[in-house]
Amino acid sequence: MKLYLIVPVYRNLELVKNCLESLTARLPEIRDCDPKVIVVNDSPDDEAVSDYLSDRAREGLIDIYIVNDENLGFVKSVNKGLAICKRDGAGAILVNSDTITYRNTLSEMVAVLKTDPQIGFVCPRSNNAAIATFPQAPNNLSGIATTPEVCYISWQSVYRYLPRYTFAPTAVGFYMLISPQVIANFGSLDEEFGVGYEEENDLVMRAGKVGFRAALANHAYAYHAGSASFMLHEIDFKGQQSGNLQKMAGRHPEFLPLVWEFERSPEYRAMTQLKNLVPTADGKLKIALDLLTMGRHHNGTNELIMNFVRWCDSQAQDEFEIFVICDKSVAEFHGLDELKTIRLRTEIAPVYAISIFFGQPFDLHQINVMEHLAPINIYGMLDVIALDCSYLRGSNNVHALWSHVARNANGLFFISQFSHDTFANRFPRKYRAEAYTRLLPTKPSAYEARYEGVDMGREHVLVMGNHFAHKAAGITGRTIAEAIPSLSVVVMGEGAGGGLRNIRELHSGVVPDEEMNEIFARSSAIILPSYYEGFGLSLMHALALGKPVVARDIPATREILSTFQSVEGVFLYYSDKELADKVREAVAFGRSHVTEGETQDWAQWSKGLFDFATDFLNRPDIYDLLMDRIEDGDVLRKLHNLEAVPAAPTPQAPPAAPVSLVPDVTINVAEMLDLDGEQFVETFYQQVLGRRADPAGLTHHVALLSSGVSKQDMLRSILSSPEFKDRRIRATLLGEELLSRRKKTLLGKGKAKIAG
Fold it and tell me: How many alpha carbons fall within 13 Å on the CB side of residue 726?
């Protein structure tokens, strides 16, 4: 295959130099294609550009040098090169003069073209190229000066997650490979499109009608300065744009629907999430600890969370920034606002590489938040009690939610082998997430610190639990109090009933930590009557204090006890008939003792979970799993919404207002024109183009202002530029009369809609 590279040039010498020198340096990659460089000089009145190009042609860096007698515009200039390609039976790569070519840009584009005979167009990825942009902004590096090097580093950090290529509804003309067969059969760009707008899309659509496809070469990259060379000709760009859009709508009514379908696709939406995997300028990725469901109370889950958070806070991280996301009052209650290295945030922003949720999701909103935060999701499936206990299962929809998580989470962590096995047994077909299964610490010393300075005693027996039926706290407390009237009984839970003077009920979770520690330390025995646990933190607290324990014989308890070489003072029972005798025996025994085996502390457990979560960054299937998650999530959300809608709509209800696919922005022209120099340029980039000015663009436009170009002319040019119309926004101008007589609302339309 022959391949010619067509470079239309219009002014801006520095950009042209960067383009041509980077392009010719990479030609050896495609030497088998007998490449030739065709440069079309469309600014013959620019002496500096003309001299440079003439010198390069004499040196042999340009194979065919064409100089237009006058400025003809992009379309006619490119067509001069395409005519040569058609004559010689060659393919073409259209290369804008404000691009930079990198290693493997050319070879990878050619390789993608050859993978499928129906691929007729190939574009590389770029920092500024409509649907070919990857990674999208904002990302961790887009907030600093967007030099070519920084943009290239951003792409390098994440491109490996994508497949070699992605089919797209169109190609982007900034850097576009066209196959020889397409050129032979469909010729050139249609000059009815004048100086530009939609001409490349028209070619792609014409070829697409007979089956030629456009593809994005995900492993190829070209920098695009973009708006650094806006043309300031006295041309009615608005009329030109509008007319070309009408041509496209008449010729190719499928174009915009195909673009919108692509942007709704799992592929595109997954690509946009991968931008979170771009590291910061310090080389760090962000991790979110999702504590939005954490309450202002104390329980086993919160104890687990706080131990993990404290460990993370004590570690100096070279590769990660860790953030806690929770309500401010919750942060103050648990001391999360006093952390040293972990940052506290209350907002939900999609800027994290990994999000970790420390419990089972009990509503769809929790899943939505997790999937919004980060492309890598980790959930703690602590137990399946809400699914197994009938009175809980009947009032929730956790099966559908947990089925989604089992299939689509990157990882799940389990606090015991029992909790893992029960979950796996409930979702045998859906369960494909990676698992971190590790018993919570069974080293008693890991729980001793909270009791330092607390006085020990033997004032009562303590029944641990809460108001849930499976905890059996109330009935257990009453059984003990009735059977042993001389014994003082404290019950953490409800349902013990009145009439007994030797029993006292406390509400679980609301007793302050200091008071709870005293209640534990002054117990003569700890009673654990729960029928169902994923782990038994209360058992470990009792052993840390050396308190005798009476516990129902359940799998979680047996798993904990199996980690010890020997156990004394722990009494298991199968039924409540044994309860009173076991309590008497425990109180008489006086003290528990265990001999540790191969046990671990919180630091070891937390490091294991942290390593498990961060190892997913090295997995090659992140993108594929993201697409599956998005597809399944769409179905889950649709079903959820259907369930929430009444079966029969109210006849009197007005029809829902249509949702606009075009975002709105307001641009204050008067305020912008009052700004000077760099501030003016930076502001119109932000407000009109939605991004920070790249260095080349900033220098170029400041120089234009210094040369006498008016701010009004510059704004008119920007509002008519390809980049603005590619944003596909509806911009309302305040003070538009300061520019020209035109409608107050401009609609940016063109090659591809960027709005999500």
Answer: 24
- pLDDT at 457 (0 to 100): 96
Alpha-helical segments (H) within 562-601: 579-589
505-533: burial string, b at 16+ Cβ within 10 Å, e else? bbebeebeeeebbbbbbbbbbbbbbbebb
pLDDT of residue 700: 64
CA–centroid distance for 288 within its chain: 11
CB 455 within 8 A of CB 520: no
Angle of CA points 183, 186, 191, to nearest 5°: 100
Q: Is 6 helix (H, G, I), strand (E, B) or coil?
A: strand
Beta strands in 59-128 (DSSP E): 64-67, 91-95, 99-101, 119-125
Contact yes or no for 127/155 (Cβ under 8 A): yes
Q: What are phi and psi of 473, to 5 degrees?
A: -70, -50
Please give the span between the terminal C-alpha atoms of the chain, in angstroms, as a whole number: 38
Cα separation, 492 vs 507, whole angstroms: 6
How far apart, in whole angstroms, are the C-alpha atoms of residue 110 and residue 214? 13
Closest CA to 689 of 709, 711, 717, 712: 717
Cα separation of 533 and 383, whole Å? 7
- Whether residue 447 contacts residue 536, with contact meaning beta carbons closer than 8 Å, is answered with no
Q: What is the pLDDT of residue 159?
A: 98
Give a three-class secondary structure readout of 506-520. ECCCCCCHHHHHHHH
How confident is the model at residue 745, as a pLDDT? 39
Inter-residue contact 396 to 329 (CB < 8 Å): no
* pLDDT for the residue 658: 38
Cβ distance 693 to 664 under 8 Å? no
DSSP for 253-306? Answer: TTHHHHHHHHHHSHHHHHHHHHGGGS--TTS-EEEEEE-TT--SS--HHHHHHH
Q: Which helix or strand (DSSP H or E) is residue 156 part of?
A: helix 148-158
The residues, ordered by sequence, that sit 6+ positions from 15 with a Cβ below 8 Å of its Cβ are 97, 98, 225, 228, 229, 696
Contact 537, 556 (CB under 8 A): no
pLDDT given for residue 239 in this prediction: 57
Alpha-carbon distances of 550 from 175, 562, 585, rounded to whole Å = 74, 16, 9
**534, 383 Cβ separation under 8 angstroms:** yes
From residue 304, alpha-carbon distances to 405, 447, 549, 554, 601 in Å are 21, 11, 22, 21, 12
Residues in the chain: 756
591: nearest Cα among 555, 556, 548, 559: 548
Which residues of the chain fall below pLDDT 50?
Answer: 228-235, 237, 645-662, 741-756
CA 483/CA 317 separation, integer angstroms: 56
The CA distance from 569 to 582, in Å, is: 11
User: Taking the alpha carbons of 256, 262, 264, 270 in that order, is the dihedral positive or negative?
Assistant: negative
CB atoms within 10 A of CB 663: 16
- The pLDDT value given to residue 656: 38
Q: State the pLDDT at residue 227.
A: 54
- d(Cα 445, Cα 594) in Å, to the nearest integer? 11
φ, ψ (nearest 5 deg) of residue 372: -75, -35
- Per DSSP, helices labelled H in 650-721 are 669-673, 677-684, 695-706, 711-719
Listed in sequence order, the DSSP H helices in 562-621 are: 579-589, 602-614
Cis previous bond, 649, omega within 30: no
Residue 567: strand, helix, or coil: strand
CB of 709 closer than 8 Å to CB of 687: no
Nearest Cα to 513, choosing from 296, 295, 298? 298
